[in-house]
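Lecture notes, unit on protein representations.

Consider one protein chain, 244 amino acids long.
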Amino acid sequence: MRVILIRLRFIFLMGYTVFFFNPVFATDQNTQKKPVVENPSNTAKSPNSSTLQEPVKFETITIEATTVAADPIRKLENRELRIRTSETLGKTLEREMGVSNLSYGPGVGQPVIRGMSGPRVRIMQNGIGAHDLSALSPDLAVAFETMLADSITVLRGPATLRYGGNAIGGMVDIKHQRIPDKIPLNGAAGRMDFRYDHNSSDKSGMIGLDIGKGNFAIHVDYFQRSSNNTHIPGAALDEAAIRQ
């Protein structure tokens, strides 16, 4: 019995030694958290920490808009038409929004509306199709003199569908008094216009007269144009290269 007690004491002593003197346990005891000592310099508040950052001011931007949208219908008449009138229809309308001039020479100019011309732009006179050769080839002018026009209406957008499938680009309606639609206020009215171009010595002139009374009206007009060659600096063709 005594031998058994001695052995138990010996086993207990060995276990106690292994438990408390184990290197792993000693490392865990040494790696315990140490109290953190605050540095007085870190605890001091910075002078900017208590103050708010100043707001950033941007430059003021003003945005303006107009309540008037681009009108798909544009009408030239009276003094504005007289100022813009040129030798061709395309040149007369080239300053309008979305309209440009397709010119193959000073005497040929077709209106280009939103990039479309020829058969895709309907040319009308007093609401009736012009039916000239300008729709077949771009080097053929519209068969009407703009000096004789009383008003020119340019129509763009979906409203052109009422004038047929070939008006997908737009419609240009030229109003004139060759078919009178009203009686002059005093029984007679007239208009005269004359233009001169110094480059090509282009001379053009017209005179129109309207007479009417009661249910009867008559219109008479006369137009004439004469022009020479257009002068440019240098030569249009290199004649030396042509001879070679």
